[in-house]
Amino acid sequence: MDDAKEGERDATETAPLPFRAAVEALRAARLRPEIEIDPTRPPQRLAPYAYALEAAVVADDEDLADGRLVLLHDPAGHDAWQGSFRLVTLVRAELELEMAADPLLPEVCWSWLTGALQARGLSYGEASGTVTRASSHYFGGLAERPAASQIEIRASWTPREGLGGVPDTATHLAAWCDLLCQVAGLPPVTPGDASVVSLPQRRGPQSR
């Protein structure tokens, strides 16, 4: 077991029962085979208790999108969260240049996040975030590289707590992975989602 996995297990063993149950649900979640996911060291100052995962969407040995999901818990509650749990995420993917030029792209990407949560029947509140697109153009000794664009979604939301004050973190994780796959350009697997538009799947290696 590596240091990150050992450290996150030690941190959760002394945590309150609702947080431990929420973390165990994340660890036990079953996800799409294209998702490669591992625990990572969580931020230390955002909440008394935190657990973090990093994931990548990989198809044909190509990294199509990546992201990080952090579960925060404050047993005393948090006014800004309107609850005692909070999920915080970062999702990134390379874009085709023509897709990056779409003026509605930020609104569409935000709707993918809220749509993924709603499609899983999840109850949540206090959602907020940003959608950023960036373009890189290369000059001089790098002039042979093609121009590149990237989309980045940063967001957070409060999962509604169920029995025992524990949110359904496994389903929130599944919805987050749905978002990752959609940003990566993979087709949906849930029946009825065939009309959902995804980013065109990229070809060739990416540079990060």
Provide a short characterization of the protein structure.
Pfam families: DUF3000 (PF11452). With 208 residues, the chain is α+β, with helices and mostly antiparallel strands.
Q: What labels would you give this structure?
A:
208 residues, six-stranded antiparallel beta sheet, elongated, disordered C terminus, alpha+beta, 5 helices
Count of discrete alpha- or pi-helical segments spanning 4 or more residues: 5
* Biggest pleated sheet: 6 strands, antiparallel
Q: Could you say how many structural domains there are in total?
A: 1
Rg of Cα set: 18 Å
- Low-confidence spans: 191-208
Percent range for β-strand residues: 25-35%
How far apart are the first and last residues' alpha carbons, in Å? 27 Å
Shape: elongated
Helix and strand composition category = alpha+beta
Work out the number of β strands. 6
Strand order of the largest sheet: 1-2-3-4-6-5
Fraction in helix? 25-40%
Q: What is the N-to-C succession of helices and strands?
A: HHEEEEHHEEH
Mean pLDDT: 84
